[in-house]
Design goal:
- This is DNA-binding transcriptional LysR family regulator.
- Belongs to the LysR transcriptional regulatory family.
- GO terms for molecular function: DNA binding.
- It is a single chain.
- The chain is of the alpha/beta class.
- The protein has twelve helices and twelve strands.
- The strands form three sheets. Strands 3, 4, 5, 6, 7, 10, 11 and 12 form an eight-stranded mixed β-sheet that branches. The chain has a two-stranded antiparallel sheet with strand order 1-2. Strands 8-9 form a two-stranded parallel sheet.
- Strand 8, helix 9 and strand 9 form a beta-alpha-beta unit.
- The two termini are 56 Å apart.
Length: 295
């Protein structure tokens, strides 16, 4: 069916006049009449009859007018939704994050984003840095937040925050509050994070760099908060984000072990697929995050 002719017919059905329809559509009257005749010919049905200066719809014309109105209302709705997607006001945002960002910063950012863009479907998944990179590269998520250096050539990285890594022990531990050598702290039993964790990789690479034997794994725990709780309960040493344990240190529930002549940092970064255009939803989120960090 010729949609141009159908659109003209719909206007004629609404106004009841070829003259007014021609004026509204910025067409000549003969052009409007010709399109009506072409549509009738295409459908093999009489759609309009003359009634003085006005037109009257036939039964077929009445039915077509109702259906065409539905059709063009749907077209307008589709155009509206496409416009909302184009401007980032409708669609989805999927994020994978390592535990620190998912605990400390992303819930607030995602809540603010959702309030600003209520029609966006927001999902956040958690995993190790390895899992986050894997989900990003297989298109399971749109962006990823990790607490580690990223050397993946297929990923663009935006560093957001510089975090410090520290060794922690329970309150009253014999190393608590002291400054010791790395070799000394490595002799203690450790609470290890799960395989794939950036913190675990950092601990192993640190031992390799300093030619020190890796510490004894006392407990292997999946999750940052769970690792902190194990140390807090009185077992061993853990390498954790200072940002994650700031409140516990200030309240004296755990203690820090300083390492002589050593300062360990890690970036909290936003990662995106390289050479893959970001959706409007992602662009809006990144803009909001940058504004949050500069305010």
């Amino acid at each position: 069916m010729n949609l141009h002719a159908l659109r003209i017919f719909t206007e004629v059905a609404k106004t009841g006049s070829v003259t007014r329809s021609a004026e509204n559509l910025l067409l000549s009257q003969p052009a409007v009449t010709a399109q009506l005749r072409n549509l009738e010919k295409e459908l093999a049905l009489k759609l309009v009859t003359l009634n003085g200066r006005n037109i009257q719809l036939t039964e077929a014309g009445e039915t077509l007018a109702v259906e065409s109105k539905r059709l063009f209302s749907l077209e307008a709705e589709i155009e509206k939704k496409m416009g909302e997607i184009l401007t980032g006001h409708q669609g989805s945002l999927r994020v994978c994050s390592t535990q620190l960002p998912s605990m400390k910063i992303l819930p607030r950012w995602l809540a603010q984003y959702k309030k600003k863009y209520p029609m966006i479907n927001v999902q956040m998944f958690k995993g190790s840095s390895q899992v986050a990179m894997s989900q990003l590269l297989d298109y399971s998520v749109d962006i990823a937040f990790v607490c580690s250096e990223v050397y993946e050539e297929k990923v663009d990285v935006i560093p957001l925050i510089r975090d410090t890594l520290i060794f922690i022990v329970s309150r009253g531990h014999h190393l608590g509050g002291r400054s010791v050598s790395l070799a000394t702290v490595m002799k203690e039993p450790f609470v290890f994070r799960e395989k794939g964790s950036a913190t675990r990789k950092k601990l192993v690479s640190l031992c390799e760099r300093e030619s020190i034997q890796e510490p004894k794994m006392g407990i292997e725990i999946e999750g940052l908060s769970e690792s902190i709780e194990a140390v807090k309960a009185g077992y061993g040493v853990a390498l954790v984000s200072e940002f994650a344990v700031k409140d516990l240190l200030e309240s004296g529930q755990i203690e820090k072990v300083s390492i002589q002549n050593m300062h360990l940092e890690q970036p909290i970064s936003l990662c995106m697929r390289k050479n893959d255009p970001n959706s409007p939803m992602v662009k809006n989120f990144i803009t909001m995050v940058k504004e949050e960090l500069t305010n």
